[in-house]
User: Fold these one by one.
Assistant:
Number 1:
Amino acid sequence: MTDLNGARILIVEDELLIGMMLQSAFEENGADVLWTQTDRGAYEILDIGGSQIDLLITDINLREGTTGFDVARHARTRNDRIAVIYLSGEVASAATPFAVQDACFISKPVTQRKLIEAAVRLIGPPSTINSAPAEAN
Protein backbone atom coordinates (compact mmCIF):
# COMPACT_ATOMS: atom_id res chain seq x y z
CA MET A 1 0.00 0.00 0.00
CA THR A 2 0.93 3.66 -0.22
CA ASP A 3 3.21 5.19 2.37
CA LEU A 4 1.67 7.86 4.61
CA ASN A 5 4.82 8.31 6.70
CA GLY A 6 4.51 11.43 8.82
CA ALA A 7 0.81 12.08 8.23
CA ARG A 8 -1.18 12.96 11.35
CA ILE A 9 -4.71 11.60 11.13
CA LEU A 10 -7.70 12.02 13.43
CA ILE A 11 -10.37 9.36 13.11
CA VAL A 12 -13.84 9.91 14.58
CA GLU A 13 -15.73 6.62 14.40
CA ASP A 14 -18.23 5.42 16.97
CA GLU A 15 -18.22 1.78 15.78
CA LEU A 16 -15.49 -0.04 17.69
CA LEU A 17 -14.50 -2.57 15.02
CA ILE A 18 -14.50 -0.03 12.20
CA GLY A 19 -12.43 2.38 14.28
CA MET A 20 -9.91 -0.32 15.10
CA MET A 21 -9.65 -1.32 11.43
CA LEU A 22 -9.13 2.28 10.32
CA GLN A 23 -6.50 2.95 12.97
CA SER A 24 -4.61 -0.22 12.09
CA ALA A 25 -4.73 0.42 8.33
CA PHE A 26 -3.31 3.93 8.63
CA GLU A 27 -0.68 2.99 11.20
CA GLU A 28 0.48 0.13 8.93
CA ASN A 29 1.02 2.77 6.25
CA GLY A 30 3.17 4.97 8.48
CA ALA A 31 0.63 7.51 9.75
CA ASP A 32 0.37 8.80 13.30
CA VAL A 33 -3.25 8.13 14.26
CA LEU A 34 -5.52 9.51 16.94
CA TRP A 35 -8.89 7.79 17.22
CA THR A 36 -11.92 8.75 19.24
CA GLN A 37 -15.43 7.35 19.31
CA THR A 38 -17.15 10.61 20.25
CA ASP A 39 -17.54 14.16 19.01
CA ARG A 40 -16.48 15.38 22.46
CA GLY A 41 -13.18 13.50 22.14
CA ALA A 42 -12.66 14.97 18.67
CA TYR A 43 -13.29 18.52 19.90
CA GLU A 44 -10.77 18.06 22.72
CA ILE A 45 -8.11 16.75 20.33
CA LEU A 46 -8.78 19.52 17.83
CA ASP A 47 -8.72 22.24 20.48
CA ILE A 48 -5.35 21.05 21.78
CA GLY A 49 -3.58 20.14 18.54
CA GLY A 50 -5.86 20.71 15.58
CA SER A 51 -3.25 22.71 13.72
CA GLN A 52 -1.01 19.62 13.66
CA ILE A 53 -3.55 17.28 12.04
CA ASP A 54 -3.35 16.65 8.30
CA LEU A 55 -6.51 14.60 7.82
CA LEU A 56 -9.82 14.15 9.59
CA ILE A 57 -11.75 10.97 8.84
CA THR A 58 -15.18 11.14 10.42
CA ASP A 59 -18.33 9.10 10.41
CA ILE A 60 -21.24 11.37 9.59
CA ASN A 61 -23.75 9.78 11.97
CA LEU A 62 -22.18 9.65 15.40
CA ARG A 63 -24.27 7.99 18.11
CA GLU A 64 -24.12 10.78 20.63
CA GLY A 65 -23.70 14.52 20.34
CA THR A 66 -23.18 16.29 17.07
CA THR A 67 -22.54 14.96 13.57
CA GLY A 68 -19.37 14.46 11.57
CA PHE A 69 -20.29 17.62 9.68
CA ASP A 70 -20.09 19.59 12.92
CA VAL A 71 -16.75 18.00 13.81
CA ALA A 72 -15.34 18.88 10.37
CA ARG A 73 -16.49 22.50 10.60
CA HIS A 74 -14.86 22.75 14.03
CA ALA A 75 -11.67 21.19 12.64
CA ARG A 76 -11.51 23.84 9.91
CA THR A 77 -11.70 26.62 12.54
CA ARG A 78 -8.54 25.15 14.07
CA ASN A 79 -6.77 24.29 10.81
CA ASP A 80 -8.12 25.65 7.53
CA ARG A 81 -5.91 23.22 5.55
CA ILE A 82 -7.09 20.01 7.21
CA ALA A 83 -8.32 17.49 4.66
CA VAL A 84 -11.64 15.78 5.41
CA ILE A 85 -13.04 12.39 4.53
CA TYR A 86 -16.63 11.68 5.52
CA LEU A 87 -17.65 8.05 5.98
CA SER A 88 -21.27 6.99 5.87
CA GLY A 89 -23.51 4.09 5.09
CA GLU A 90 -26.03 6.59 3.75
CA VAL A 91 -26.26 8.33 0.38
CA ALA A 92 -23.58 11.03 0.26
CA SER A 93 -25.27 13.27 -2.31
CA ALA A 94 -28.03 14.26 0.12
CA ALA A 95 -25.42 15.33 2.66
CA THR A 96 -23.24 17.42 0.35
CA PRO A 97 -24.72 20.82 1.37
CA PHE A 98 -23.61 20.20 4.96
CA ALA A 99 -20.00 19.28 4.12
CA VAL A 100 -16.93 21.47 4.38
CA GLN A 101 -15.36 22.57 1.11
CA ASP A 102 -13.21 20.05 -0.78
CA ALA A 103 -14.24 17.13 1.44
CA CYS A 104 -14.40 13.58 0.16
CA PHE A 105 -17.33 11.21 0.76
CA ILE A 106 -16.77 7.48 0.99
CA SER A 107 -19.60 5.03 1.49
CA LYS A 108 -19.36 2.20 3.98
CA PRO A 109 -18.40 -0.51 3.74
CA VAL A 110 -15.06 0.62 2.37
CA THR A 111 -11.88 -1.26 1.58
CA GLN A 112 -8.67 -0.24 3.30
CA ARG A 113 -7.04 0.31 -0.07
CA LYS A 114 -9.74 2.73 -1.25
CA LEU A 115 -9.51 4.71 1.98
CA ILE A 116 -5.71 4.89 1.94
CA GLU A 117 -5.74 5.99 -1.70
CA ALA A 118 -8.28 8.73 -0.91
CA ALA A 119 -6.14 9.92 1.98
CA VAL A 120 -3.02 10.15 -0.18
CA ARG A 121 -4.98 11.98 -2.88
CA LEU A 122 -6.22 14.55 -0.36
CA ILE A 123 -3.07 15.20 1.65
CA GLY A 124 -0.47 14.58 -1.03
CA PRO A 125 2.74 12.60 -0.99
CA PRO A 126 4.70 12.33 2.26
CA SER A 127 7.12 15.08 1.23
CA THR A 128 4.28 17.65 1.26
CA ILE A 129 2.62 16.60 4.50
CA ASN A 130 2.68 19.32 7.18
CA SER A 131 4.54 21.75 4.96
CA ALA A 132 3.40 25.32 4.67
CA PRO A 133 2.41 26.56 1.21
CA ALA A 134 5.19 28.30 -0.67
CA GLU A 135 4.98 32.06 -0.98
CA ALA A 136 4.48 33.56 -4.41
CA ASN A 137 7.25 35.78 -5.75
Number 2:
Amino acid sequence: MDAINRCLEGLKRLDVKYLTLYAFSTENWRRPKAEVDYLMNLPVQFIAKELDNMIANNIRLQVLGDMDGLPDHTRISVTRGIEATAGNSGLTLSFALNYGAREEIL
Protein backbone atom coordinates (compact mmCIF):
# COMPACT_ATOMS: atom_id res chain seq x y z
CA MET A 1 0.00 0.00 0.00
CA ASP A 2 2.91 2.33 0.66
CA ALA A 3 4.11 1.80 -2.91
CA ILE A 4 0.69 2.81 -4.22
CA ASN A 5 0.77 5.97 -2.10
CA ARG A 6 4.26 6.91 -3.29
CA CYS A 7 3.13 6.36 -6.86
CA LEU A 8 0.00 8.49 -6.36
CA GLU A 9 2.04 11.32 -4.84
CA GLY A 10 4.44 11.33 -7.78
CA LEU A 11 1.66 11.15 -10.35
CA LYS A 12 -0.13 14.06 -8.69
CA ARG A 13 3.02 16.19 -8.98
CA LEU A 14 3.22 15.26 -12.67
CA ASP A 15 -0.48 16.06 -13.17
CA VAL A 16 -1.24 12.54 -14.40
CA LYS A 17 -4.99 12.01 -14.55
CA TYR A 18 -5.35 8.21 -14.69
CA LEU A 19 -3.72 5.21 -13.03
CA THR A 20 -4.93 1.65 -13.51
CA LEU A 21 -3.58 -1.10 -11.26
CA TYR A 22 -4.21 -4.73 -12.14
CA ALA A 23 -5.25 -6.12 -8.77
CA PHE A 24 -6.99 -9.46 -9.38
CA SER A 25 -7.55 -11.43 -12.56
CA THR A 26 -10.55 -13.67 -13.10
CA GLU A 27 -7.99 -16.47 -13.49
CA ASN A 28 -6.84 -15.85 -9.91
CA TRP A 29 -9.94 -17.63 -8.58
CA ARG A 30 -8.05 -20.87 -9.33
CA ARG A 31 -5.45 -20.08 -6.69
CA PRO A 32 -5.62 -21.73 -3.24
CA LYS A 33 -8.50 -20.43 -1.11
CA ALA A 34 -6.19 -18.94 1.53
CA GLU A 35 -4.41 -16.92 -1.14
CA VAL A 36 -7.67 -15.73 -2.71
CA ASP A 37 -8.99 -14.73 0.73
CA TYR A 38 -5.80 -12.75 1.37
CA LEU A 39 -6.03 -11.00 -2.01
CA MET A 40 -9.72 -10.18 -1.50
CA ASN A 41 -8.88 -8.48 1.80
CA LEU A 42 -6.28 -6.15 0.25
CA PRO A 43 -8.83 -3.76 -1.30
CA VAL A 44 -10.74 -3.71 2.00
CA GLN A 45 -7.57 -2.80 3.90
CA PHE A 46 -6.53 -0.22 1.31
CA ILE A 47 -9.88 1.57 1.40
CA ALA A 48 -10.07 1.49 5.20
CA LYS A 49 -6.60 3.00 5.44
CA GLU A 50 -6.59 5.37 2.47
CA LEU A 51 -10.14 6.59 1.86
CA ASP A 52 -9.68 9.83 3.81
CA ASN A 53 -6.43 10.51 1.91
CA MET A 54 -8.13 9.87 -1.42
CA ILE A 55 -10.90 12.31 -0.54
CA ALA A 56 -8.40 14.93 0.70
CA ASN A 57 -6.31 14.56 -2.47
CA ASN A 58 -9.29 14.66 -4.85
CA ILE A 59 -8.66 11.09 -6.07
CA ARG A 60 -11.56 9.23 -7.63
CA LEU A 61 -11.74 5.45 -7.22
CA GLN A 62 -13.24 3.16 -9.81
CA VAL A 63 -13.16 -0.56 -10.53
CA LEU A 64 -12.81 -2.32 -13.84
CA GLY A 65 -14.16 -5.85 -13.64
CA ASP A 66 -17.07 -7.88 -12.35
CA MET A 67 -17.92 -6.55 -8.91
CA ASP A 68 -20.84 -8.97 -8.61
CA GLY A 69 -18.35 -11.82 -8.43
CA LEU A 70 -16.50 -10.38 -5.43
CA PRO A 71 -17.06 -11.58 -1.85
CA ASP A 72 -19.59 -9.42 -0.03
CA HIS A 73 -17.08 -7.75 2.29
CA THR A 74 -14.86 -6.77 -0.64
CA ARG A 75 -17.73 -5.55 -2.82
CA ILE A 76 -19.24 -3.50 0.03
CA SER A 77 -15.93 -1.85 0.87
CA VAL A 78 -15.07 -1.09 -2.75
CA THR A 79 -18.56 0.30 -3.39
CA ARG A 80 -18.18 2.54 -0.35
CA GLY A 81 -14.88 3.85 -1.73
CA ILE A 82 -16.34 4.44 -5.18
CA GLU A 83 -19.34 6.30 -3.78
CA ALA A 84 -17.26 8.39 -1.37
CA THR A 85 -14.92 9.57 -4.13
CA ALA A 86 -17.43 9.85 -6.98
CA GLY A 87 -17.39 13.65 -6.93
CA ASN A 88 -13.61 13.93 -7.00
CA SER A 89 -12.09 15.32 -10.18
CA GLY A 90 -8.36 14.79 -9.75
CA LEU A 91 -6.55 11.58 -10.58
CA THR A 92 -8.75 8.56 -11.29
CA LEU A 93 -7.40 5.43 -9.61
CA SER A 94 -8.80 2.34 -11.30
CA PHE A 95 -8.38 -1.13 -9.87
CA ALA A 96 -8.76 -3.98 -12.34
CA LEU A 97 -10.44 -6.28 -9.84
CA ASN A 98 -11.97 -9.59 -10.88
CA TYR A 99 -11.05 -8.49 -14.37
CA GLY A 100 -10.37 -10.65 -17.38
CA ALA A 101 -9.56 -9.40 -20.85
CA ARG A 102 -11.25 -12.45 -22.32
CA GLU A 103 -14.59 -11.32 -20.87
CA GLU A 104 -14.07 -7.88 -22.42
CA ILE A 105 -13.60 -9.44 -25.86
CA LEU A 106 -16.61 -11.75 -25.55
Number 3:
Amino acid sequence: MQTLVQSRSGPSYDDDLVLWIDAQIHLLLEKRFSELDIENLVEELDGMKKQYAHELDSRLTVLIMHLLKCEYQKNHPQNKWHSTLTEQRRRIAFLLKDAPSMRPSVLPFSLDCYKTARRRASLETGLDIKTFPAQLPYSVEQILDDDFIP
Protein backbone atom coordinates (compact mmCIF):
# COMPACT_ATOMS: atom_id res chain seq x y z
CA MET A 1 0.00 0.00 0.00
CA GLN A 2 1.24 3.44 -0.89
CA THR A 3 2.16 5.69 2.02
CA LEU A 4 -0.10 8.71 2.24
CA VAL A 5 2.22 10.93 4.24
CA GLN A 6 2.55 14.45 2.88
CA SER A 7 6.14 15.43 2.43
CA ARG A 8 8.22 17.23 -0.14
CA SER A 9 8.17 14.03 -2.16
CA GLY A 10 4.58 13.10 -1.17
CA PRO A 11 1.46 13.51 -3.26
CA SER A 12 1.17 16.91 -4.85
CA TYR A 13 -2.06 18.86 -5.04
CA ASP A 14 -1.24 19.78 -8.62
CA ASP A 15 -0.19 16.30 -9.76
CA ASP A 16 -2.87 14.01 -8.28
CA LEU A 17 -5.78 15.63 -6.49
CA VAL A 18 -7.34 12.38 -5.24
CA LEU A 19 -4.06 11.08 -3.84
CA TRP A 20 -3.42 14.49 -2.26
CA ILE A 21 -6.90 14.41 -0.63
CA ASP A 22 -6.20 10.92 0.72
CA ALA A 23 -2.93 12.20 2.19
CA GLN A 24 -4.65 15.18 3.82
CA ILE A 25 -7.33 12.92 5.33
CA HIS A 26 -4.63 10.63 6.69
CA LEU A 27 -2.75 13.56 8.22
CA LEU A 28 -5.94 14.89 9.82
CA LEU A 29 -6.85 11.50 11.27
CA GLU A 30 -3.33 11.14 12.62
CA LYS A 31 -3.53 14.69 14.04
CA ARG A 32 -0.36 15.63 12.18
CA PHE A 33 -1.58 19.15 11.59
CA SER A 34 1.82 20.71 11.01
CA GLU A 35 2.21 18.57 7.89
CA LEU A 36 -1.08 19.63 6.31
CA ASP A 37 -1.09 21.57 3.05
CA ILE A 38 -3.06 24.44 4.59
CA GLU A 39 -3.01 26.76 1.58
CA ASN A 40 -4.49 24.17 -0.76
CA LEU A 41 -6.91 22.86 1.89
CA VAL A 42 -8.32 26.37 2.31
CA GLU A 43 -8.56 26.73 -1.47
CA GLU A 44 -10.41 23.40 -1.78
CA LEU A 45 -12.82 24.20 1.06
CA ASP A 46 -13.55 27.63 -0.40
CA GLY A 47 -14.14 25.96 -3.76
CA MET A 48 -16.59 23.53 -2.16
CA LYS A 49 -18.53 26.43 -0.66
CA LYS A 50 -18.64 28.21 -4.02
CA GLN A 51 -19.78 24.99 -5.68
CA TYR A 52 -22.82 24.84 -3.37
CA ALA A 53 -23.65 28.47 -4.19
CA HIS A 54 -23.25 27.83 -7.92
CA GLU A 55 -25.49 24.76 -7.73
CA LEU A 56 -28.20 26.66 -5.86
CA ASP A 57 -28.05 29.49 -8.39
CA SER A 58 -28.17 27.10 -11.35
CA ARG A 59 -31.06 25.03 -10.01
CA LEU A 60 -33.10 28.11 -9.06
CA THR A 61 -32.56 29.55 -12.55
CA VAL A 62 -33.87 26.39 -14.21
CA LEU A 63 -36.74 26.09 -11.73
CA ILE A 64 -37.89 29.70 -12.13
CA MET A 65 -37.56 29.50 -15.92
CA HIS A 66 -39.87 26.48 -15.94
CA LEU A 67 -42.35 28.18 -13.59
CA LEU A 68 -42.51 31.04 -16.09
CA LYS A 69 -42.93 28.66 -19.01
CA CYS A 70 -45.77 26.86 -17.21
CA GLU A 71 -47.53 30.12 -16.45
CA TYR A 72 -47.10 31.93 -19.75
CA GLN A 73 -47.13 29.16 -22.35
CA LYS A 74 -50.29 27.33 -21.35
CA ASN A 75 -50.91 25.90 -24.83
CA HIS A 76 -47.71 23.85 -24.72
CA PRO A 77 -47.65 20.30 -23.26
CA GLN A 78 -46.37 20.80 -19.73
CA ASN A 79 -45.72 17.27 -18.45
CA LYS A 80 -41.99 17.55 -19.10
CA TRP A 81 -41.90 20.94 -17.41
CA HIS A 82 -43.67 19.53 -14.36
CA SER A 83 -41.05 16.80 -14.22
CA THR A 84 -38.30 19.42 -14.37
CA LEU A 85 -39.97 21.43 -11.59
CA THR A 86 -40.12 18.33 -9.41
CA GLU A 87 -36.51 17.39 -10.09
CA GLN A 88 -35.11 20.87 -9.47
CA ARG A 89 -37.09 21.22 -6.24
CA ARG A 90 -35.92 17.79 -5.10
CA ARG A 91 -32.29 18.68 -5.74
CA ILE A 92 -32.63 22.08 -4.06
CA ALA A 93 -34.19 20.38 -1.01
CA PHE A 94 -31.28 17.93 -0.91
CA LEU A 95 -28.79 20.80 -1.19
CA LEU A 96 -30.49 22.72 1.63
CA LYS A 97 -30.60 19.58 3.78
CA ASP A 98 -26.86 19.15 3.25
CA ALA A 99 -26.19 22.87 3.79
CA PRO A 100 -29.07 24.35 5.84
CA SER A 101 -27.12 27.58 6.35
CA MET A 102 -27.87 28.33 2.68
CA ARG A 103 -31.65 28.52 3.23
CA PRO A 104 -31.57 32.30 3.88
CA SER A 105 -29.76 32.64 0.53
CA VAL A 106 -32.70 31.27 -1.47
CA LEU A 107 -34.44 34.67 -1.77
CA PRO A 108 -31.35 36.68 -2.77
CA PHE A 109 -30.27 33.95 -5.20
CA SER A 110 -33.80 33.82 -6.67
CA LEU A 111 -33.84 37.58 -7.15
CA ASP A 112 -30.38 37.49 -8.75
CA CYS A 113 -31.11 34.64 -11.14
CA TYR A 114 -34.55 35.88 -12.21
CA LYS A 115 -33.18 38.05 -15.03
CA THR A 116 -31.43 35.03 -16.56
CA ALA A 117 -34.46 32.77 -16.02
CA ARG A 118 -36.72 35.35 -17.66
CA ARG A 119 -34.41 35.71 -20.66
CA ARG A 120 -34.09 31.94 -21.07
CA ALA A 121 -37.87 31.49 -20.80
CA SER A 122 -38.31 34.06 -23.55
CA LEU A 123 -35.77 32.35 -25.79
CA GLU A 124 -37.14 28.86 -25.21
CA THR A 125 -40.80 29.79 -25.66
CA GLY A 126 -40.37 32.33 -28.43
CA LEU A 127 -42.46 34.76 -26.39
CA ASP A 128 -41.40 38.40 -26.15
CA ILE A 129 -39.44 39.02 -22.95
CA LYS A 130 -42.01 41.70 -22.01
CA THR A 131 -44.55 38.87 -21.66
CA PHE A 132 -42.83 37.95 -18.41
CA PRO A 133 -42.88 40.21 -15.33
CA ALA A 134 -39.85 42.44 -14.88
CA GLN A 135 -39.58 41.35 -11.23
CA LEU A 136 -39.69 37.87 -9.71
CA PRO A 137 -43.42 37.05 -9.41
CA TYR A 138 -43.08 34.11 -7.01
CA SER A 139 -42.37 33.91 -3.30
CA VAL A 140 -39.67 31.59 -1.96
CA GLU A 141 -42.46 29.44 -0.53
CA GLN A 142 -44.03 29.08 -3.98
CA ILE A 143 -40.70 28.42 -5.66
CA LEU A 144 -39.90 25.58 -3.27
CA ASP A 145 -43.45 24.20 -2.91
CA ASP A 146 -43.79 20.85 -4.70
CA ASP A 147 -47.49 21.50 -5.25
CA PHE A 148 -47.15 24.99 -6.70
CA ILE A 149 -47.55 25.18 -10.47
CA PRO A 150 -48.69 28.56 -11.76
Number 4:
Amino acid sequence: MAWFGTDPLSTLRRRIDDVDVRLAALLAERTALTAAVQDLKRVSGHPGRDARREAEIVSRMAEVAGDLGPERIGRIMDAVIAESLDVAEQTRPGP
Protein backbone atom coordinates (compact mmCIF):
# COMPACT_ATOMS: atom_id res chain seq x y z
CA MET A 1 0.00 0.00 0.00
CA ALA A 2 1.44 3.37 -0.99
CA TRP A 3 1.51 6.14 1.56
CA PHE A 4 0.51 9.63 0.60
CA GLY A 5 1.92 12.27 2.89
CA THR A 6 4.08 11.93 5.96
CA ASP A 7 1.45 10.63 8.38
CA PRO A 8 0.29 7.13 7.41
CA LEU A 9 -1.90 6.79 10.51
CA SER A 10 -3.91 9.89 9.59
CA THR A 11 -4.13 8.72 5.99
CA LEU A 12 -5.50 5.33 7.03
CA ARG A 13 -7.93 6.87 9.51
CA ARG A 14 -9.28 9.23 6.82
CA ARG A 15 -9.80 6.24 4.55
CA ILE A 16 -11.62 4.40 7.35
CA ASP A 17 -13.78 7.49 7.92
CA ASP A 18 -14.66 7.53 4.20
CA VAL A 19 -15.57 3.84 4.29
CA ASP A 20 -17.68 4.41 7.42
CA VAL A 21 -19.69 7.14 5.67
CA ARG A 22 -20.34 4.86 2.69
CA LEU A 23 -21.17 1.97 5.01
CA ALA A 24 -23.69 4.10 6.93
CA ALA A 25 -25.35 5.15 3.66
CA LEU A 26 -25.55 1.53 2.52
CA LEU A 27 -27.02 0.45 5.87
CA ALA A 28 -29.64 3.20 5.60
CA GLU A 29 -30.50 2.08 2.06
CA ARG A 30 -30.71 -1.55 3.16
CA THR A 31 -32.92 -0.60 6.09
CA ALA A 32 -35.31 1.28 3.80
CA LEU A 33 -35.47 -1.71 1.46
CA THR A 34 -36.09 -4.02 4.41
CA ALA A 35 -39.02 -1.85 5.48
CA ALA A 36 -40.49 -2.07 1.97
CA VAL A 37 -40.07 -5.86 1.94
CA GLN A 38 -41.70 -6.14 5.37
CA ASP A 39 -44.69 -4.11 4.16
CA LEU A 40 -45.11 -6.52 1.25
CA LYS A 41 -44.68 -9.55 3.50
CA ARG A 42 -47.33 -8.27 5.90
CA VAL A 43 -49.98 -8.01 3.20
CA SER A 44 -49.06 -11.38 1.69
CA GLY A 45 -48.74 -13.26 5.00
CA HIS A 46 -45.03 -14.11 4.79
CA PRO A 47 -42.95 -14.34 7.99
CA GLY A 48 -40.57 -11.52 8.94
CA ARG A 49 -37.36 -13.55 8.68
CA ASP A 50 -36.34 -16.19 6.17
CA ALA A 51 -33.48 -18.33 7.51
CA ARG A 52 -32.75 -19.87 4.10
CA ARG A 53 -32.43 -16.46 2.44
CA GLU A 54 -30.29 -15.15 5.30
CA ALA A 55 -27.93 -18.14 4.92
CA GLU A 56 -27.67 -17.42 1.18
CA ILE A 57 -26.84 -13.76 1.91
CA VAL A 58 -24.13 -14.74 4.40
CA SER A 59 -22.64 -17.28 2.00
CA ARG A 60 -22.54 -14.75 -0.86
CA MET A 61 -21.02 -12.07 1.34
CA ALA A 62 -18.42 -14.42 2.85
CA GLU A 63 -17.09 -15.09 -0.65
CA VAL A 64 -15.96 -11.46 -0.96
CA ALA A 65 -15.35 -10.61 2.70
CA GLY A 66 -11.77 -11.82 2.89
CA ASP A 67 -10.58 -12.61 6.40
CA LEU A 68 -13.97 -11.93 7.97
CA GLY A 69 -15.20 -15.36 6.90
CA PRO A 70 -18.70 -16.81 7.15
CA GLU A 71 -18.94 -16.90 10.95
CA ARG A 72 -18.14 -13.22 11.43
CA ILE A 73 -20.22 -12.17 8.43
CA GLY A 74 -23.06 -14.23 9.87
CA ARG A 75 -22.90 -12.35 13.17
CA ILE A 76 -22.63 -9.00 11.43
CA MET A 77 -25.55 -9.72 9.12
CA ASP A 78 -27.66 -11.09 11.95
CA ALA A 79 -27.26 -7.72 13.69
CA VAL A 80 -27.91 -5.77 10.48
CA ILE A 81 -31.05 -7.77 9.72
CA ALA A 82 -32.36 -7.62 13.29
CA GLU A 83 -31.83 -3.86 13.51
CA SER A 84 -33.35 -3.30 10.07
CA LEU A 85 -36.42 -5.28 11.08
CA ASP A 86 -36.62 -3.30 14.32
CA VAL A 87 -36.54 -0.01 12.40
CA ALA A 88 -39.19 -1.33 9.99
CA GLU A 89 -41.42 -2.24 12.93
CA GLN A 90 -40.85 1.05 14.77
CA THR A 91 -41.52 3.21 11.71
CA ARG A 92 -44.46 1.21 10.40
CA PRO A 93 -47.64 3.23 10.13
CA GLY A 94 -50.45 2.24 12.46
CA PRO A 95 -53.11 -0.34 11.57
